[in-house]
Design a protein that fits this description.
Blueprint: E1 15-23, E2 37-41, E3 44-49, E4 54-62, E5 73-81, E6 87-99, E7 102-103, E8 109-117, E9 131-133, H1 143-146, E10 154-163, E11 175-187
Antiparallel strand pairs: 1-11, 2-3, 3-11, 4-10, 5-9, 5-11, 6-7, 6-8, 6-10
Length: 188
């Protein structure tokens, strides 16, 4: 009998890190609540965040089928700045896991981090700056990921923002967000 993921033989599971990229064109803003400015350069869509405001976007991230349930995931913004200056940009993620459309967490989980930027190109931050999503809060119970029918697939509703008002954000330039990367442990 073949094992499916961790069923009956967790020691035999082989895993690797996978990256899922959510491009800026899949994110949406709220016109009444500090939305950044949407822009296009060639075929690339981006959102420009003001350095003197707290602006936010929303996105729904599906939990990948090959994710190892209960393990942590990480997220980081892929962005650039319009000022050639080494400084820090404060990004935050407020997320609520959902199963079958119902919130799993009683309150949204908020994580924030500072990302180094120097204005010379696209920032892809080192792992030490990634935001950590708590793995045991991302699913509706391990059995949902061990059944073959996957009837309880989950997703994560997110509010992603730049907190330009924070004292920890000292970059004077606008930040252009190209997307959000999510890194997770996956079965191979």
């Amino acid at each position: 009998m073949a094992n499916r993921h961790t069923r009956m033989n967790p020691a035999a599971v082989q895993k690797q890190l996978q990256r899922m990229f959510i491009p800026a064109h899949l994110m949406y803003g709220d016109y009444q609540n500090g939305q950044p400015t949407r822009g296009v350069s060639g075929v690339n869509v981006f959102w420009t965040f003001d350095p003197d405001a707290k602006q936010e976007l929303y996105v729904v991230i599906p939990v990948p089928l090959d994710w190892i349930a209960g393990t942590v995931a990480w997220a980081y913004p892929v962005f650039s700045t319009d000022t050639d200056l080494y400084a820090r940009v404060r990004w935050g993620l407020e997320y609520t896991p959902h199963a079958k459309g119902t919130s799993i967490a009683a309150v949204p989980i908020v994580i924030e981090g500072d990302f180094d930027a120097d204005g010379t190109g696209t920032v892809i931050p080192p792992k030490s700056q990634w935001l950590t999503l708590v793995g045991n809060l991302l699913y509706g119970g391990e059995p949902a990921f061990q059944r073959d029918d996957f009837t309880e697939l989950v997703h994560v509703a997110c509010k992603f923002y730049r907190d330009g008002l924070s004292d920890l954000d000292n970059h004077p330039g606008a930040a252009r967000l190209y997307g959000l990367a999510v890194v997770y442990e996956a079965f191979i």
